[in-house]
Amino acid sequence: MIKMKIRALAELCHVSDKEAFLYLLLSAAGWTYFVHQYLYSTGLGIAVPKYASY
Questions:
Q1: pLDDT tens digit string along 1-54?
Q2: 23 in Cβ contact with 31 (< 8 Å)
């Protein structure tokens, strides 16, 4: 099922399956880094674990 979605994305972007997977991986890493930077620049990185009993 995941391979079908990656293949559909690859066909849409006119790239190979491997390139589509790498683009998705890079995009996910970028969004993860963005969220991490946002949480810690606003101070939520300290507040959320404190109130979640970590």
A1: 888 999 998 999 999 999 999 999 999 999 999 988 888 888 777 766 666 665
A2: no
Amino acid (1-letter code) at residue 9: L
Phi, psi torsion values for 27, nearest 5 degrees: -65, -45
DSSP string computed for 1-54 = -HHHHHHHHHHHHT--HHHHHHHHHHHHHHHHHHHHHHHHHHTHHHHHHHHTT-
Distance from C-alpha of 38 to C-alpha of 15, rounded to nearest angstrom: 32
Put simply, whether the predicted model's pTM sits higher than 0.85 gets the answer no
